[in-house]
Specification:
homotetramer, mainly alpha, Fumarase C, Chain A, domain 2, Ribonucleotide Reductase Protein R1, domain 1, 3 domains, two-stranded antiparallel ribbon, two-stranded parallel sheet, about 65% helix, elongated, Adenylosuccinate lyase (chains A, B, C, D), EC 4.3.2.2 (chains A, B, C, D), Fumarate_lyase_N (chains A, B, C, D), lyase activity (chains A, B, C, D), purine biosynthesis (chains A, B, C, D)
Chain lengths: ~425, ~425, ~425, ~425
Amino acid sequence: MIPRYARPEAADLWSPQTRYRIWFEIEAHAADAMAELGVIPKAAAEAIWAGGKDAIWDADRIDEIERTTRHDVLAFLTHVAEVVGPEARFLHQGLTSSDVLDTCLAVQLSRAADMLIEDVDLLMAAIKRRAIEHKYTPTVGRSHGIHAEPTTFGLKLAGHYAEFQRAKERLAMARFEVATCAISGSVGTFANVDPRVEAHVAEKLGLAVEPVSSQVIPRDRHAAFFAALAVTASSIERLAIEIRHLQRTEVLEAEEPFEVGQKGSSSMPHKRNPILTENLTGLARLVRSAVVPALENVALWHERDISHSSVERGIAPDATVHLDFALRRAASLMERLVVYPDNMLKNLDRLGGLVHSQRVMLGLTQKNISREDAYAAVQGNAMKVWRGEGRFLELLKADPVVSKAMTDAELEALFDLGYHFKHVDTIFARVFGEGA
Amino acid sequence: MIPRYARPEAADLWSPQTRYRIWFEIEAHAADAMAELGVIPKAAAEAIWAGGKDAIWDADRIDEIERTTRHDVLAFLTHVAEVVGPEARFLHQGLTSSDVLDTCLAVQLSRAADMLIEDVDLLMAAIKRRAIEHKYTPTVGRSHGIHAEPTTFGLKLAGHYAEFQRAKERLAMARFEVATCAISGSVGTFANVDPRVEAHVAEKLGLAVEPVSSQVIPRDRHAAFFAALAVTASSIERLAIEIRHLQRTEVLEAEEPFEVGQKGSSSMPHKRNPILTENLTGLARLVRSAVVPALENVALWHERDISHSSVERGIAPDATVHLDFALRRAASLMERLVVYPDNMLKNLDRLGGLVHSQRVMLGLTQKNISREDAYAAVQGNAMKVWRGEGRFLELLKADPVVSKAMTDAELEALFDLGYHFKHVDTIFARVFGEGA
Amino acid sequence: MIPRYARPEAADLWSPQTRYRIWFEIEAHAADAMAELGVIPKAAAEAIWAGGKDAIWDADRIDEIERTTRHDVLAFLTHVAEVVGPEARFLHQGLTSSDVLDTCLAVQLSRAADMLIEDVDLLMAAIKRRAIEHKYTPTVGRSHGIHAEPTTFGLKLAGHYAEFQRAKERLAMARFEVATCAISGSVGTFANVDPRVEAHVAEKLGLAVEPVSSQVIPRDRHAAFFAALAVTASSIERLAIEIRHLQRTEVLEAEEPFEVGQKGSSSMPHKRNPILTENLTGLARLVRSAVVPALENVALWHERDISHSSVERGIAPDATVHLDFALRRAASLMERLVVYPDNMLKNLDRLGGLVHSQRVMLGLTQKNISREDAYAAVQGNAMKVWRGEGRFLELLKADPVVSKAMTDAELEALFDLGYHFKHVDTIFARVFGEGA
Amino acid sequence: MIPRYARPEAADLWSPQTRYRIWFEIEAHAADAMAELGVIPKAAAEAIWAGGKDAIWDADRIDEIERTTRHDVLAFLTHVAEVVGPEARFLHQGLTSSDVLDTCLAVQLSRAADMLIEDVDLLMAAIKRRAIEHKYTPTVGRSHGIHAEPTTFGLKLAGHYAEFQRAKERLAMARFEVATCAISGSVGTFANVDPRVEAHVAEKLGLAVEPVSSQVIPRDRHAAFFAALAVTASSIERLAIEIRHLQRTEVLEAEEPFEVGQKGSSSMPHKRNPILTENLTGLARLVRSAVVPALENVALWHERDISHSSVERGIAPDATVHLDFALRRAASLMERLVVYPDNMLKNLDRLGGLVHSQRVMLGLTQKNISREDAYAAVQGNAMKVWRGEGRFLELLKADPVVSKAMTDAELEALFDLGYHFKHVDTIFARVFGEGA
């Protein structure tokens, strides 16, 4: 995890203390269920909760024990006994370490998903506000980086909003995928632990019961989880690339917020660089890099091998924490993005009206000019504009083929921006609901 | 696409003829809607259907035209005019090529998803049959490749069944992701085409309407699609690895079906190699390789660039066709897998009863021996078994600490396999429903 | 392999006929060596060459035989016997199929590398010619997409040339990695084949001897090979992205060649889209997608498993053929790239001289103004330019702090482009040698 | 970076203190060169060295300054001035931050490569020692996980040794790739800094001069670097998978060293799990995951964007430190690997002599039995062995076809292990040189 790209609230999900708390809860809830089943004394379960509920676990001490036992869960249980007292011997009966580890990971990933969904909500709210603000701000639509036809800046943002709406649904699915509890013993047969213990722990932790665990929770779930994060990261990248393009010197239709006192460059004081969105581009690559190892983690040997563990110690905190950071950064950025509608208009007009060429072509065909002739007329005049030999509207008016088919007024009507925006409302209603 | 790993039915989804048929349907349905709206003559729309409905499109001719126009959809439309006649000039009005291309891809990917879901059903049916057959076939559960505790072969298979059940749900979600129609014009504003045209085409093709398209359907959808395929491929790999392990000479608990007349090796005639599952392992890598380029396709520039196109020409057929092949091969293999219950039992007994060690340890603690003493007693005798100094049960009976705590009969009861299988039914009910 | 992105010469490397020819050569050279060693009759080796040297192998017939034997090399040998006659029984003695398959792959990958190196040479030649042509064509250097300081278009190209020089060296290393021959038998012990056979075949095919093969040539070699291709693909992407940026409507400093008769868009006739470089961007993603499966192929089980085979049937042809296509397309594009020096100058001047700000700042510090004061003066005036309140030079002349430190002539001298180009020659000499 | 998989010596390469030291050296060497060129006073350069040479830089203070300036190099320079005094104002003249950052990264990656090469040396030394120890330890060679023919454990290890020899060469190339220095200013034109400054710094730091930098060192170099690490990681994975297989309960030909006091499992005290090699398998996935983002970093926009930076803050420390850890762990493991030659022999004999089948087949064809008849005879008897109906040698002696062609003594000679090992020396000489 790169501290510079980690919010403390997010990083805390992966702290030793958080992990130990969850471990304790799993063990203590399991003890409750066992006490209920008569496997261990009820008083023991109560004593465990009493002694451990509010404990601050001593990570250094646990590390010290682990240096001898070389086993993290055993080291923790030894420390619990130090804190809670002799009743701790009733803990973990019939459980295997993975019951604790995998269920804990499920809790952590679920919480991470909740956090990421909240982040997406923040980002969506920011995009929505700006989309509505710029619902009818004209800007040029570009395909292949080349001016195409007019659109609005709000429509651009509506597309990103809809994409993050999908990201949110995918994250909700991802949460659903990983939110399962396994307390099933060494090879998942419940030989030494009653399935009702699992059911109890699952309910208390807000998890579903894993239908078949085999010491471990199957890793296809985690692969699907990280894939959802990766797609979300790519959606952030798409937004970031859009802004980076808009901030290019030659385009300058929008700019990242520039803090007072911030130095853009050590050597070129006039520069305002889109470093936030460039950073988001890089973070997207980092978050995506979790997908392949997560996929490679699926095919564990037989009932389990532990090759997935080191991978997850890396990708689980890194991908969730960096994606959280990226989503928050994107949200803050979108809230404060500086938009230049005047520059958008200037750019839109840059080609002397060429962005209306398709409309002119269609207009001509509606005047019973063949598609080929219309195409030729439009392309010919377009090329003149391209070479700087005039503005499109004037050239068309002067073109014999065109002027024979259309009056000047008819031609002028074809250059009306409103024509392009007549369905903006329809699209906004699809995305934001009626009335947006 | 590697022909050797392509079923004709699957490959056909991606043939030029299939593509042209879908293109025609999109254009002709759009024409219907335009006729209904009065934009083009109804007779034209009818003539188009009449002339093109059952046409076999001439791919060579279209290629020939494309060599001049350098534009695939225009080449197709020119050919349609050759076949359908002059009414074809009413086609494609207000549409952009991507309206056709992207909606066609949506149809193809949806059909591919349907096919893959059917494949998973076949595979699940095969696994279920074998799982029920071997519900109580004892086998050793292995963690880290080392014998752990008894389980049943049916339970192993139940785990794979549950995993493919999840794969099926993910593929259904993936289908949902990509099954959208966009008929929205050059930059998605519907400037020259009424949104009702899109609605009509979508309905006719069984697609949803894409809420915001920007000449293209956003590529986060496709990234999520290929990610679902990749996770499915990894689940196949897990199954394949399991079988490859079981077929190892030293294990030989199961074998791939061996055809009469098949030569396993040019040089070692006794060999029966798990080549089908090794092949599935390789195919899983191939299918997974679509994920990264699909993620890289998301961040297109502005309203679109066409960098995604060449990528999709590769990964869309390859990943779907090879995954279909892999699922079918896996299904056929599971149907005919040769299982050796005797060898499973022999292996289970291989460690002289050590697989019961945890149960013995728990049994001792229930006799008021401390966890540490129980652990020491079990570990000591286990090490003797390991060194070949006797079978576990006999050694335990002779151990002073153990024999003081337990009678021989009590010890023998701890070695009962049934103890481990008492919850098999519970797990089967979770996976296959009650009564499986 | 996507036919549209495959040159016939490249695809032919992977045709069945090419493969069978190489197989025959391997077997026949091995027969020569065995004859020399007295293992088989010399007459047999001669008869084999006589019968097979110019044979056109019947791929359909071999497929037919394979449907029975389910073994490709055995099917081929059976067919060789049909063509060459009974002496063919002396072929393949002591060999294992992989001796033939892996050595053949080494030949194919080596030839592919040779082809790719030739392609890079073509591309480098094109870039060099254009770099020298534009050695002193001024253009703005951009960091973060924002104007920074002047550079020349030739310098930009020199950077790409140097990068492809490195690509060439990496491809040469990649060729070296894979160009090994293994004729070592079932587990690589030479139990049934003399190492001198391997040495002879290696020499005849221009390969090195694989020091330790284990039925297969180790796959770390192939992973390194595909990694080299992937880095090359990324270098193509960098060039492609540069051109796509330069062709943006707002920038228009260069354009892809536009064929007479080519239609850029079905709907917007004025559009000239950088579709070649967008295509290169996509092809780069495709070529790169071979890296992960190639890395996953390395860890085969024990002496070998065959999981790598299906992967290589896909990635070996696809990655080499598509990279060849991409390099050729890039070379042709660079040969014919349309460059607009006037637009470069216009863009360079777009910020009213701000690109000279760092130089002004340095100039001020050399006049004993503190770095902080110089920074403040420059930034203040830069911001005015940014807001459209004047050109940089005039504002500086009017600034009291600046004008106190420098004369107008001194200031003007700081705006001289030549100042920035004084080391162009040094850099060109590094890249192209003296005198370029 | 996961602390648990980081050696302090490796992690220290990436500590703030190390980074600041390198930054200072770059700046101070540059100052020397500038003083030599008369650009700044010699006394200033000397004062800078005097004040900063042995300084411990205050990372917290630098962070504090950065919170205002939002620029890491400027913050550092401000702090240097605090420590070194006013002469520090002569630092960084004509430099851009990236000159410092990228050259520093080159130093760090070069040092990391040196460390990794040393690690590979350790691993190779361990493998070599064990290979020589087990040069003639018979073991079965396995293809597809199925017994094939005899080989020796030394030969297996020789293959891994040769692979790490290649890894070492690749790491040396990777070091060569990244070890370049760029001190060329804002867009790489040396506008404000003499190329001789770059040459001086490069020489002092043991780097080559980057022929064309464009504010940044081109990232194809780094992509090639991380690719070399990824291939090395996959070679570790191959070794790890081999050991994991050998340690399987049913195979048990080797075991990871087991520490006294170590608990293998909390619940199954007899278990010795190959957790080190499973961990290496996971670490290989982690190290490999750097490849894709490194490839995606290549295509920066124009002269540079900063998207690569966040990626490298993650992958540069993580991939180098975890690979170092994995190589050291692998070396230590190979030093102490517990090998069971008796079990190897037992397994080799497990198939009742079937591993000699190819040799028998060849023997029969040398007795003028046709390949088909020999194959049939061998396969028939092999199948009997397979079904447990006898040992191969005895069955062959009793077979009428075989016994007619060969005496019992001739048959017995075909079962001699020495036959398979006659070229072990040849292969060892290839790998370790003569006399190994």
